[in-house]
Amino acid sequence: MSSSSSFRARLESLPLRYSAPAGGYAPMPSPDDAPGIGDRGQENGPRVKVGPDGYGVVVTTGGASAPSGPSAATPSAGSSTILPATPPASESASTPEVPASPIFGVVQAPAPAGYGVVQPRPKSPEPSSSGSPDVLDSPIFGAVSSAASAASALSPVEPTAPRSAASPAPDATGAAAPVQSAPPVHGKPSAPAESIPQEPDRPEPQQPLHPARPPAPTAIAWESVASAASHAAAIPLSQQVAEEETDDEEAPAGAAELLQLSEEPEPEAGARALPDGVPEDGVYADVDVAIVMESTYPYLKGGVSAVVHDIITGNPDLTFGIIHITWDSHSPLKDLYGMPDNVAWVRVLYLSMEEHQEDFLRARPRDLRMNRRQRRELSRRILGAMLSLAQDGQTEPLWDIISEGLSASRRYPVWAILGTREFMEAYHDMMPDLGMSMTDVFWCLRDFFSLAYAVLAEPVPRAQVYHAHTTGYAMLLGVNAAREHGTKVLLTEHNLYVRDTVNTLLERRLDLNIRLTDYRTFDVTGRERMWMAWWLEMGRLCYPYAYASTYLYPRAITEANELGGDAGRAIVIPNGIVTSEFDASYVARLAAIEEIKKEGADKHLWKLVYIARVVPIKGLLDMIDSVRLMVDRGLNIHLDVCGPTEHMPSYFEQCLTRIVEQGLESVITIRGTVKVRELLPEFDLFVLPSYNEGLPVVSLETMGAGIPTVSTDVGAVRSVVEDMIVTDDGQTWDPCGIIIEPGDPTVMADKVQEVISDVDLYERLSLNARGRVEAAYDLVKVNASYNKIYRQGGAGEQAGARADRGGA
Questions:
Q1: CATH code at 598?
Q2: Residue of higher predicted confidence among 602 and 179
Q3: Model pTM?
């Protein structure tokens, strides 16, 4: 092993060429400051006082006392996140934290500023009135203690490599490992971060947990619920109802009236500039297709964004709108693609409570305009609808409640029911026992209500077809908008979103299968079980409403069936490229093959290329280890790493450190973000060691240039590279590369050696690569398929009517 000074010198001299793309990439938050759902922590003795007009409580921390409970959701820099269960301190240093993706909803992360958290009362609260309280003065109804400002320019973060769902969480009492804000290429190197272990298979299931009434529930008085709530972080009792109320007392006047939505205030002078593409006059034209995206197009570069841009530009006869769901107004909101003329508008929606907390928090139980009996009936109806979905797959009962109480045309604010005694008693009676306190249940349900409010409560412009590109919030919004406007919704799954999200939540490998009922059987915490159910049942709630669902490869249809998808409405539409754009690179490849034949395979310097972001799920560390093995075998190779390095600086630093430790500075070149198409003639073999993909466009592009592939078996890669292709005229195409299992550097080295040691094999793979992409992945054919399916949903029939300011 080299000395420290020698190690540093080698790291600083590591060959690195880096250039940022136009518009740049969004910086990624570290695990310490990434926004998320937030853990509530435990009480730690802060001083509290009742807020004005009984609106919750205001926190005043004194001395060195650390804030706790909900108010501790956003720790200061360098502090650790308080988790529900803390393992022995010895584990905290070696178990890395999970960066929280706001779109994925990872729960073990601090909440952003203004998430609406309220410090609980002390454990023995004084009664707010002489009467028996009826309503919990929960944080959704009370004044909030503001959390620290959220990090700017937030965007979805990359899921880390997994740990077992059943393994202990990191110790919250230990200091969290800091994540570098930029790769230390020319500075003093830090010690490499410990690699995260890969879980080989799914967790061992426990006895099934059926979502039904717990056996022989104990009859409880409301005082016991309040006592349980105060055990960890008491939900303050309401000061709203100071007098007795009878079950059948008439509801407040206006209960049947339509809930009046407040007018959107005019922007103040000097207000933040509108996101690119948002109409300055607030008027949204009706469109043929509204693309519904989660944190991608047109403000972030990436594979999905590129596909959507191709769809829009390839269908100039249709008008498009973009509904862009992102975390908050600090997220990237600059158009990086130059949206074509047939894009009429962009509508941006934010998930963060900070962006809509005033409207959400001001809803009080009295705004329901219901008496006790009506609140009790509504509570049981909501929970019954959830159970009907989970047990019988019935979707309409829950959608009816969404239409009545959450959508833009709602008659009452259904989320206000959460803070009532009637709802919590009904939950205790009807729902399964997850081993959670009523307080923890409350906070988790409150997160669900706030996220659903963010997605569903605002009006969206009218479209003939809402084209959702994930089964999560995008599809939830798309189904609701189609129901509101009487139009249709189309689903495209680039990846299996629900599977990837649940695996991210549990810190498992993203390629591991997930089934619809796994939240009942996995050995996980009650909180994790609730979040699993949230994502899995959201998919089941939405799948039936798509008039068609498109997938990138046939196997995805089967996998989606296990999550509630409908194979009868599913079709395969792959990604595509314009093959003529790679003609010059293909001609250069054919010439290079002739030179290799003359030179000899053993004497040729084989140029391998990795083209992907430098993040854990793309497997660059595995590839570095494979290169070391190949060099040890005497193979004459060089690896170029092309792709953004700034998305996860700590992982990039690990890769740099591994290169130096393995003595590969002269064998691996990190190019960073470059114009890969211009460089394709330089490369002989494309290597993809990834753990998760949809249908990577870069695979098609390298194939268009006649470059063979060695890739892991993820997503659609096997169908693209290896499965037999038969054209309409009966021509067949054999594989253009070799497929291996993820996470095995030795097998990667073996298969690369197999390809580059046999020039005849290499030539066959090269010819097949070009033939396969021409036969099955031509972009003109792909866009024609989308045009056809759009028109089946009614696109092309609307007359371009104008929508009102709210977009309804």
A1: 3.40.50.2000
A2: 602
A3: 0.68
